[in-house]
């Protein structure tokens, strides 16, 4: 049985990850901590209500270390002395710069949420993760943050998002290098372009498809994933023309 902590669980990909985990057998998933910045949305509360106590919503502001520390104390109490197995840092922001990069005025905000908050959340939960059997930390990133593939996404007017996700990728590698020797697996997953509030309804994939593909990776994680950038696998999209391919392979940094 594995325990999970997922940020950004009130909507979008985070909500669907919680939803799908809650439907798995209890001998596979014991508890899911669904973290969001406000009281549970109606959709999240519905998942909580039918989970028979396996999904626990908590309120945490991931840009406030004192709020994170308070959440960690609550999680520790909920786990009743057991460790945390899997952390999925999913919460993020995608601010635009529609007048060009020189007019970008939201880089600090993007770094605060997409990089610094991930670091603070991970660092605060490390003691519980060290006690867990899974020792798995998954950071949700994007191929848009791949420097090697930057030209293919040049028209997307979200430079702060791209830059901060590239930094998140390097943060993940730094954690992987330091904690891999302790049995941890730190890695990045690109969940694809999903039909969420962030991704819009013009996106490639339904959020259920993206979440299922992410969990396929998480549930089948191997030690060699440590320090890598994983792409989801979606049948039929392996050889798609254009920048978005979902082939299950490693993404170039």
Automatic annotation (TrEMBL):
Pfam families: adh_short. GO terms for cellular component: cytoplasm. SUPFAM superfamilies: NAD(P)-binding Rossmann-fold domains. It comes from the Eukaryota. GO terms for molecular function: oxidoreductase activity. Belongs to the short-chain dehydrogenases/reductases (SDR) family. This is Short chain oxidoreductase. The lineage of its organism: Eukaryota, Fungi, Dikarya, Ascomycota, Pezizomycotina.
């Amino acid at each position: 049985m594995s325990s999970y902590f997922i940020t950004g669980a009130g909507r979008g990909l985070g909500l669907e990850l919680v939803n799908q985990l809650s439907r798995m057998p209890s001998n596979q998933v014991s508890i899911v901590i669904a973290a969001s910045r406000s009281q549970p949305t109606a959709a999240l509360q519905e998942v909580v209500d039918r989970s028979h106590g396996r999904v626990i919503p908590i309120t945490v502001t991931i840009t406030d270390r004192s709020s994170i520390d308070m959440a960690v104390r609550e999680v520790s109490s909920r786990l009743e002395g057991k460790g945390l197995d899997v952390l999925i840092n999913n919460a993020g922001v995608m601010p635009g710069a529609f007048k060009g990069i020189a007019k970008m005025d939201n880089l600090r905000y993007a770094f605060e949420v997409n990089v610094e908050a991930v670091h603070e959340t991970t660092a605060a939960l490390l003691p519980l993760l060290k006690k867990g059997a899974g020792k798995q930390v998954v950071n949700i990133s994007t191929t848009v943050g791949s420097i090697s593939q930057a030209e293919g996404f040049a028209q997307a007017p979200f430079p702060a998002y791209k830059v901060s996700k590239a930094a998140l990728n390097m943060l993940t590698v730094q954690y992987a290098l330091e904690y891999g020797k302790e049995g941890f697996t730190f890695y990045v997953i690109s969940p694809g372009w999903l039909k969420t509030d962030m991704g819009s309804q013009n996106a490639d994939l339904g959020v259920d498809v993206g979440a299922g593909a992410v969990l396929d990776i998480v549930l089948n994680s191997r030690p060699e994933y440590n320090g890598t950038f994983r792409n989801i696998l979606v049948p039929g999209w392996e050889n798609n023309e254009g920048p978005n391919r979902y082939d299950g392979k490693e993404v170039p940094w």
